[in-house]
Hints:
Bound molecules: NADP nicotinamide-adenine-dinucleotide phosphate
Number of strands: 10
Largest sheet: 8 strands, mixed
Distance between the termini: 30 Å
Strand order of the largest sheet: 3-2-1-4-5-6-10-8
Low-confidence stretches: none
Amino acid sequence: xxxxxILGANGQLARHTTALLLKQTxxxxxxxxxRASRLKNPAxxxxxxxxxxxxxxxxxxxxxxxxxxVYANLSGPMAEQAAIIVASMHATGLTRLIFVxxxxxxxxxxxxxxxxxxxxxxxxAAVIEASDLDYTILxxxxxxxxxxxxxxxxxxxxxxxxxxxxxxxxxxxxxKLALLPTLHARASLGVSG
Length: 193
Ligand SMILES: NC(=O)c1ccc[n+]([C@@H]2O[C@H](COP(=O)([O-])OP(=O)(O)OC[C@H]3O[C@@H](n4cnc5c(N)ncnc54)[C@H](OP(=O)(O)O)[C@@H]3O)[C@@H](O)[C@H]2O)c1
């Protein structure tokens, strides 16, 4: 049974992925979030809810102990968050990180100029890429509520294709990445529908 730590667990994509992981896997989930009272625990035998801030390294390390995979679904000062996540994973001996970023961080979207609003996404990706972790950085297009699971992946260095991607597609990909430690390890993937 895989043990997955979900950081920023009240985020839109994190909540969507949590529901899928509960339904389609037997993984144990630890939901890490600020103001934990916002979330209910529908499956206490398989899910633990921990109140914490990612910027609190001590609390983060405590939550990381015994986990197999870290799935980070964050916003805000992401470079600082990434540095604390990498250091905490080193301190606790974890190696597998799935980190949600955004399309455009390498100026890879045809016809679109890089925008400074992407700085936290670009800088956090750089922190993770400089680490020795088995990371997979996801660079999704705009989220949609389309039912379909249908996505294509582009590697770093390739032009991004498409524009949107469904939450269902992203959650499906995150589930596969969480269950297969070597899948797309040390890759930064553009994800679009
Ligand atoms: N929506 C799109 O179309 C789209 C497209 C491409 C990329 N993205 C990016 O993909 C990522 C995931 O998307 P999303 O819609 O799930 O984002 P979201 O709903 O904004 O969730 C981000 C979560 O990060 C949490 N967070 C921020 N700082 C934290 C900290 N210090 N400690 C703990 N938690 C913290 C927030 O917690 P609080 O609830 O406590 O504030 C929030 O729940 C985001 O970075 C988003 O910008 C989105």
